[in-house]
C-alpha cells in the first residue's frame, strides 16, 4: 500500500506511451495506396536527377562477394547482380541482352557459341577485359560446378575479340547459364578484392554493418547508373527494417505485404513486384503416408490457396499451382493456376479411399518450417487449420535455417515443409531440373519416369515452340502427381521515401537492379 | 598471493571445461556449416570436399585437440561465415565497441545507483524514497530489450534525438560514436542500476541498525558522517559481488541490446556465428565471455578482500 500513488502515476504514464506507439504504428488502411497494383508513375513535375545516394536496408548478408563462388545467398546474388556482368544479362522481361559480349552467333547448328567481346570494355579498376579473362571465368565456373557449365567442352579465344564456346552436345538454351559475372584472371583474392564489369563497383564491405557500392566510371553504358552511391545496410530483422525506414537511417528496403501495410502510405512509395520464387508446401514423396498419391492429392484439395494469400499476405500474391513462377510467362502453364480447387469433402473421400479416417486411423502430418521466415511460419499456421477441417492432424515444427538446410534440404528427413524455391537464371530448367528422379536437389523425392523422359526430350528439342510445349507438359506431370502444394509467388514490395526515387524495374528473377534507379526533384 | 594463484588455477580450469562443453554442445546441435556455406545448390561431392577442407570429417577429440593447440599458439584461424576474415581481426574490431558500450553503461549505473540508494536510505519511508522505490521496481521489471525498443520509438522516431539504425564507427568520429551509444547504454544500465539501488538501499538500512552506528553517533558523529565514513564502507561489500556480476554481463556483449540498436559489437557477432554454425568463431567467443565472467568475479572478490580485513584474515 505504501507505494500506491507513484505506481499509479507511472502506470498512467505507461499507458500514454503505449497509446503513442500504437497510434504511430497502427495506421493500417486496408485499401490504402499500397493495395493498388500499380507503382508510382513519373509525372511532369518530377525532374530526374543524376548522382546521389541510396541507402538500402537488408536483413541478410551475402555469403560471398565472389561471383565464381557458387555458394551464395539469394540476397547475395541479388546484390552482386549490380557489380558483375556476364557475357549476356537478363532484362525485366526475362530476355537475354548483350552485356560483356556485344553480340553472339551460333555455329555448327548450335554446338558452338561465338561471343564477340564488347570493344573497349573495362573492369572496375580500369584494366581492359581480355579474351583470357573470359576464358578464365568460364573455365573456373565449370570447375566450380555451376549449373549448365558441365555442358562446356572447351573455351577458346579466336581472332582479336571472339570467344568460342564448344558444347559437348547441342543445347538451344545455353545462354541463360552464361550470365555468370566476368572477373579478371590476374586477381589473386576475389573474395577480398572483388572486381567486375557491372554498373557499380564495391567500395567497402564491413561485416554485419554495410556494403557500399559506387558508380563504375568505366561502365560500358554511359547513361547508367544514375546514382553515385548505394549503401546496403545490414540490420538484425524486419522489425529493425521498419524502424530504420521510419527513422530515416535507411531509404529503401524489400518488404512483404504484411510489413508494407505497417508503413504510412503518405510517407512511403511502395513499388509492387514479386519475389520471383514459388512458395510450396513440399511433401516428401518417399515417406509414409505421403508416398500415396491419394494422400498428396487430398492435401492439395484440403488447402485453399487464395485464403492463405488473403489471411497471411494481405491479399497480395500470385497463386502458382505449378513449380514455375507465373512471371516466366512464356513457359508457365497457366491452366495450372488452380489445379486442385478447394474441396474438403473430396479430400476426405480420397483419404478414406487411402484407408485413413477418424480416430486411430486419423492421418497426421508434421510440417517443418524454417523459423527465420515469418511468412512461411504464418502460412503454416493457416495450412494447419485448413488441414484440420479435412480431418488431417498437422503440427508445425520450427527449426533454424542451419538445421533446415542440413536435415530437410540435404538430409530429406521430413514429411512436409514450407519454403520458397527461387531460380538462378531465367531458364525454366532452373525450376524444373530438381524434379528429375536422380536430381541432386530433388528434396521432395519426386520420382516419375514419364517426367524424366519429357524433361530429357525438352533439352534435346531444337524447336523453341515444341520445347515450350514440353516444359508445359513437364509442369502438368508434376501437378498431376501432386508432388507438393504449389502456393504462390509471394508479393514483394520495394519501399522508398515518398517522392524521392524512381526507375525501379522488376525482374522475373530474385535480383534488384540498382542501375536504373534515379532520384527526382 | 596464495589466493591469487588459486584463483588463476580455477580460472584456467573453468576456461578449459567451458571450451570442452561448447565443443560437445555444438556437436549435438543440428546443422552443418558446410551445407550453410554451400547453400541449396551444393552437390554431395562439394559438401564432402568442404567438410574435409574445414576438418569436420575428423573425430571430435582430434578436432578439439587441434583447436586447442592452435588457440594456445595464438592462431585463431578464419571465420567460416565471413570468409577471408580472421577471427582475431573480427573480434578485435568489435571489442572497442562492446567495451565502450559497457563502460558507458557502467558509468550510468554507478552515477545513478549510489546517490539514489543513499537518498532513499536516508529518507526511509519519505516521499522521495517511495518514489525511488516505485521507479526501481518498475525498471527491474522492464526487460532491457523492451526499454531499447521504447527508446527507439520515443527518442528516435517521435522526438528525433537520434536516427535509429545509424552506427558511426569510432574510427570515423569518436564524438558521434559515443553519442550513438548513449541510449543503448541507458537501456543496458537502467534495469541493472535499479537492481543495484534496491540492493544498496537494503544493505545500507541493515548496516544502519548495527551497534557500531550508535557508537559512532554517541561519539558525536553527524548522521552524514556516520553514513559516509562507516556505513557505506560496510554496505558496499555485498553490492560489490553484484557489481561483479553486472560487469561480467555487460562486458561479454549486451547481446539483445546490440541486436536491437544494430550495434556491431561482440553480441551481434555471437548471434551471427551461432546462426551460421561458425564453430571456430563461437568457440573463441565463448572462451572470451567465460574469461570476462571469471575475471570480473575474481576482481570483485579481490576488492572485497581489500576493503574488508575480516575476509582477508579468514
Summary tags:
heterodimer, A: 521 residues, alpha+beta, Dipeptide-binding Protein, domain 1, eleven-stranded mixed beta sheet, four-stranded antiparallel beta sheet, 13 helices, 27% helix, B: 314 residues, mainly alpha, MetI-like fold, 2 domains, 78% helix, globular
Q: Brief description of this entry?
A:
The complex is a heterodimer of chains A (521) and B (314). Helix content of chain A is 27%, strand content 24%. Chain A is built from 13 helices and 20 strands.
Walkthrough of the structure:
The complex is a heterodimer of chains A (521) and B (314). Chain A is built from 13 helices and 20 strands. In chain A, the strands form four sheets. In chain A, strands 2, 9, 10, 11, 12, 13, 14, 15, 16, 17 and 18 form an eleven-stranded mixed β-sheet that branches. Chain A has a four-stranded antiparallel β-sheet with strand order 5-6-8-7, covered by helices on one side. Chain A has a domain of 92 residues: Alpha-Beta Complex (Dipeptide-binding Protein, domain 1). Chain A is an alpha+beta fold. In chain A, strand 3 and strand 4 form a beta hairpin. In chain A, 47% of the residues are buried. With 314 residues, chain B is an all-alpha fold. Chain B has two domains: 72 residues, no CATH class; 224 residues, MetI-like (MetI-like fold), CATH 1.10.3720.10. Helix content of chain B is 78%, strand content 0%. Chain B has 14 helices and no strands. In chain B, helix 7 packs across helix 8 and helix 10 packs antiparallel against helix 13. The longest helix of chain B is centred in the N-terminal third of the chain and has 36 residues. Chain B is globular. At the A-B interface, helix 1, helix 4 and helix 10 of A face helix 2, helix 3, helix 6, helix 7 and helix 12 of B.
Amino acid at each position: 500500500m505504501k507505494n500506491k500513488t507513484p505506481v499509479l502515476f507511472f502506470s498512467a504514464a505507461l499507458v500514454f506511451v503505449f497509446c503513442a506507439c500504437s497510434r504511430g504504428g497502427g495506421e493500417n488502411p486496408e485499401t490504402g495506396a499500397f493495395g493498388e497494383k500499380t507503382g508510382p508513375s513519373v509525372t511532369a513535375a518530377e525532374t530526374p536527377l543524376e548522382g546521389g545516394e541510396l541507402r538500402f536496408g537488408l536483413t541478410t548478408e551475402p555469403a560471398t562477394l565472389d561471383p565464381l563462388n557458387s555458394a551464395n545467398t539469394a540476397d547475395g546474388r541479388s546484390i552482386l547482380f549490380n557489380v558483375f556482368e556476364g557475357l549476356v544479362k537478363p532484362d525485366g522481361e526475362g530476355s537475354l541482352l548483350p552485356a560483356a559480349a556485344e553480340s553472339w552467333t551460333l555455329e555448327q547448328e548450335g554446338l558452338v557459341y561465338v561471343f564477340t567481346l564488347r570493344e573497349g570494355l573495362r573492369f572496375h579498376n580500369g584494366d581492359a577485359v581480355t579474351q583470357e579473362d573470359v576464358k578464365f571465368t568460364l573455365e573456373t565456373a565449370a570447375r566450380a560446378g555451376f549449373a549448365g557449365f558441365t555442358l562446356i567442352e572447351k573455351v577458346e579465344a579466336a581472332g582479336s575479340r571472339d570467344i568460342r564456346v564448344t558444347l559437348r552436345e547441342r543445347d538451344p538454351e545455353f545462354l541463360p547459364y552464361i550470365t555468370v559475372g566476368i572477373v579478371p584472371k590476374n586477381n589473386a583474392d576475389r573474395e577480398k578484392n572483388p572486381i567486375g564489369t557491372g554498373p557499380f563497383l564495391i567500395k567497402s564491405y564491413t561485416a554485419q554493418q554495410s556494403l557500399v557500392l559506387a558508380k563504375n566510371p568505366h561502365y560500358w553504358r554511359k547513361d547508367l547508373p544514375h546514382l553515385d552511391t548505394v549503401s546496403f545496410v545490414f540490420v538484425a530483422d524486419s522489425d529493425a527494417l521498419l524502424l530504420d525506414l521510419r527513422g530515416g537511417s535507411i531509404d529503401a528496403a524489400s518488404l512483404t505485404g504484411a510489413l508494407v501495410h505497417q508503413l504510412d502510405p503518405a510517407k512511403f512509395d511502395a513499388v509492387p513486384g514479386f519475389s520471383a520464387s514459388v512458395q510450396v508446401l513440399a511433401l516428401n514423396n518417399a515417406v509414409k503416408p505421403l508416398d500415396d498419391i491419394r494422400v498428396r492429392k487430398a492435401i492439395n484439395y484440403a488447402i485453399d490457396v487464395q485464403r492463405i494469400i488473403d489471411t497471411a499476405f494481405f491479399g497480395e500474391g500470385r497463386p502458382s499451382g505449378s513449380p514455375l513462377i507465373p512471371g516466366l510467362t512464356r513457359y508457365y502453364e497457366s491452366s495450372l493456376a488452380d489445379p486442385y480447387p478447394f474441396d474438403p469433402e473430396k479430400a476426405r473421400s480420397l483419404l478414406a479411399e487411402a484407408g485413413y479416417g477418424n480416430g486411430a486411423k486419423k492421418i497426421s502430418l508434421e510440417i517443418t518450417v524454417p523459423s527465420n521466415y515469418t511468412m512461411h511460419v504464418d502460412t503454416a499456421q493457416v495450412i494447419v487449420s485448413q488441414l484440420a477441417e479435412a480431418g488431417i492432424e498437422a503440427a508445425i515444427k520450427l527449426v533454424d535455417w542451419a538445421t533446415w538446410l542440413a536435415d530437410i534440404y540435404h538430409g530429406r528427413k521430413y514429411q512436409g515443409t514450407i519454403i520458397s524455391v527461387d531460380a538462378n537464371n531465367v531458364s525454366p530448367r532452373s525450376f524444373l531440373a530438381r524434379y528429375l528422379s536422380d536430381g541432386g536437389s530433388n528434396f521432395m523425392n519426386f520420382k516419375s519416369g514419364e517426367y524424366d523422359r519429357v524433361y530429357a526430350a525438352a533439352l534435346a528439342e531444337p524447336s523453341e515452340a515444341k520445347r515450350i510445349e514440353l516444359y508445359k507438359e513437364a509442369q502438368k506431370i508434376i501437378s498431376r502427381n501432386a508432388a507438393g502444394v504449389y502456393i504462390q509467388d509471394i508479393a514483394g514490395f520495394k519501399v522508398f521515401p515518398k517522392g524521392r526515387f524512381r526507375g525501379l524495374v522488376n525482374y522475373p528473377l530474385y535480383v534488384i537492379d540498382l542501375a536504373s534507379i534515379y532520384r527526382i526533384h | 598471493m596464495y589466493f591469487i594463484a588459486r584463483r588463476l588455477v580455477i580460472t584456467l580450469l573453468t576456461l578449459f571445461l567451458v571450451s570442452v562443453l561448447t565443443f560437445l554442445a555444438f556437436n549435438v546441435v543440428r546443422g552443418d556449416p558446410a551445407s550453410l556455406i554451400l547453400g541449396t545448390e551444393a552437390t554431395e561431392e562439394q559438401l564432402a570436399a568442404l567438410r574435409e577442407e574445414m576438418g569436420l570429417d575428423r573425430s571430435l577429440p582430434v578436432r578439439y585437440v587441434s583447436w586447442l593447440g592452435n588457440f594456445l599458439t595464438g592462431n585463431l584461424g578464419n571465420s567460416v561465415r565471413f570468409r577471408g576474415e580472421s577471427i582475431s581481426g573480427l573480434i578485435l574490431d568489435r571489442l572497442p565497441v562492446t567495451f565502450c558500450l559497457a563502460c558507458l553503461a557502467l558509468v550510468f549505473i554507478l552515477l545513478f545507483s549510489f546517490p539514489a540508494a543513499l537518498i532513499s536510505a536516508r529518507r526511509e519511508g519519505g516521499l522521495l524514497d517511495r518514489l525511488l522505490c516505485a521507479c526501481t521496481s518498475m525498471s527491474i521489471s522492464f526487460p532491457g530489450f523492451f526499454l531499447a525498443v521504447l527508446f527507439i520509438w520515443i527518442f528516435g522516431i517521435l522526438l528525433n534525438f537520434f536516427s535509429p539504425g545509424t552506427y558511426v564507427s569510432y574510427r570515423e568520429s569518436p564524438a558521434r560514436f559515443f553519442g550513438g551509444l548513449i541510449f543503448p547504454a541507458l537501456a543496458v544500465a537502467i534495469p541493472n542500476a535499479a537492481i543495484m539501488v534496491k540492493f544498496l538501499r537494503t544493505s545500507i538500512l541493515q548496516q544502519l541498525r548495527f551497534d557500531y552506528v550508535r557508537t559512532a553517533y554517541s561519539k558525536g558523529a553527524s548522521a552524514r558522517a556516520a553514513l559516509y565514513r562507516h556505513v557505506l564502507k560496510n554496505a558496499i561489500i555485498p553490492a560489490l559481488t553484484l557489481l561483479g556480476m553486472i560487469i561480467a554481463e555487460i562486458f561479454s556483449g549486451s547481446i539483445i541490446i546490440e541486436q536491437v540498436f544494430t550495434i556491431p559489437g561482440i553480441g551481434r557477432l555471437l548471434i551471427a556465428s551461432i546462426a551460421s554454425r561458425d564453430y571456430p568463431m563461437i568457440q573463441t567467443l565463448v572462451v572470451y565471455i567465460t574469461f570476462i565472467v571469471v575475471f570480473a568475479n575474481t576482481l570483485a572478490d579481490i576488492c572485497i578482500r581489500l576493503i574488508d580485513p575480516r575476509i582477508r584474515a579468514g
